Amino acid sequence: MGERPFDSMNQSLGNPVILRLKDGKEIRGILKAFDVHMNVVLDDAEETDSESTKRFGTLIVRGDNIIFISPNNKK
Fold this sequence. Notes:
This protein is mostly beta strands. The protein has one helix and five strands. It has one domain (5-71): SH3 type barrels, CATH 2.30.30.100.
């Protein structure tokens, strides 16, 4: 059997990830924690759009607002 979603999440702990939210926003940060509801804690979180970047530091994102979580291998 292939990899399970939580396996990928565990491998991403401590690494950069990209979150896409239901409202279309994209948040980047270091994945620090997550739970079974896909609530996530990001460090060094920032929201970037075409005009500006908002820096949040530590951010907690509720799981039901997240469309996807992707590893961010770009430095």
